[in-house]
């Protein structure tokens, strides 16, 4: 039947957009994966399975709800699950969080440009910010098309790092354990002392920063089946990239400890030319994620492609440039990201409760349409 058909092009574009959205400066520079997974050694690879389970389940649900409810504003999903009062709190928290991560990612872009090209961090931060602003002004639809193409490119680059690490690993299986011992000896700071909890926390972090975006992707799909497929493909692909990066960081542990941008150090070890290419593409990757966060933040206050939207975008970009150019990137990741993860746990509790209520009502033949709360929040 037509309602069950899946458009492969749409699946690839939107799943690519999900990957591009999640692979921001924290991931592209290697800091997120290093602090959430690599610091746990080989157990960090197992932790990715915990991440996959949590994130896949939540993403499937959000994409499905986005497709079925067609919210006027994707932030209304918080009212849908949490009610008006708590939902409004989560809306504002999500907006503030997205903007804070926007600033963190600007800092990551500046750190990348500074590490490889020697250009002052504030100059690099300003460059990324201006690119993001120009893209945001184009609107959400154009943004998805742009980052939908960039997502697979990011995955390919990370895969190259992983393959380059796996080749020597096949000859010397002990490289992973050697990297793990080097990490313990260096005393690097991890997000959590428990490897399983680190994997779960990262899933909660990714969820909290992407709820409205995932809802928007689901709403843009042709039907529920396509929305679910987009969610699965996007998260499974992203998880594969995490695994590849953990392996690359463990194998190259001695050369990345203390580095603001671990992936750039690994790429440079493979080849100076590849390091140069990788530095440029990291900047592109950061730009796409920063653009997405800026759009999702401003959409709370105005409809895209309007004068109000453009004015707010300019103001928030200028503020982000000022703070992103002076804040220490690695310390921001270690403080801000775990906090976001913990807040998502409560939201998942609301999601589970709501979905169980809907299933029980459906089982007893009652109506599952509950749009009053969402309408009241408009």
Structure description:
This protein is mainly α and 378 residues long. The protein is 81% helix and 0% strand. It contains 17 helices and no strands. Helix 1 (8-22) crosses helix 11 (224-251) and helix 6 (84-117) packs across helix 15. The model is unreliable at 368-373 (pLDDT under 50).
SSE inventory with pairings:
Blueprint: H1 8-22, H2 25-28, H3 31-36, H4 43-69, H5 77-82, H6 84-117, H7 121-138, H8 140-171, H9 175-186, H10 195-220, H11 224-251, H12 253-256, H13 262-270, H14 272-298, H15 307-324, H16 329-363, H17 372-376
In a few lines, what is going on in this structure?
The protein has 378 residues and is mostly helical.
Counting DSSP H or I runs of 4 or more residues, the number of helices is 17
**Helix-and-strand structural type:** mainly alpha
Instruction: Kindly report how far apart the N and C termini lie.
Output: 35 Å
| CATH topology descriptor | Amino acid/polyamine transporter I
Please count the beta strands (DSSP E, at least 2 residues each): 0
Biggest sheet overview? none
Radius of gyration: 20 Å
The number of distinct structural domains comes to 1
Question: What is the 3D shape?
Answer: globular
State the low-pLDDT regions, or none. Answer: 368-373
What is the level-2 CATH architecture name?
Up-down Bundle
Helix/strand order, N-terminal first: HHHHHHHHHHHHHHHHH
The percent range for strand residues is under 5%
Query: What oligomeric state do these chains adopt?
Result: single chain
Helix fraction bin: over 70%
Average pLDDT rating:
84
**CATH first level:** Mainly Alpha
Per CATH, the superfamily is: Amino acid/polyamine transporter I
Keywords: Membrane, Transmembrane, Transmembrane helix
InterPro entries: YkvI-like
Transmembrane segments: 12-30, 45-63, 90-113, 119-139, 146-170, 195-217, 229-251, 271-297, 309-329, 335-353
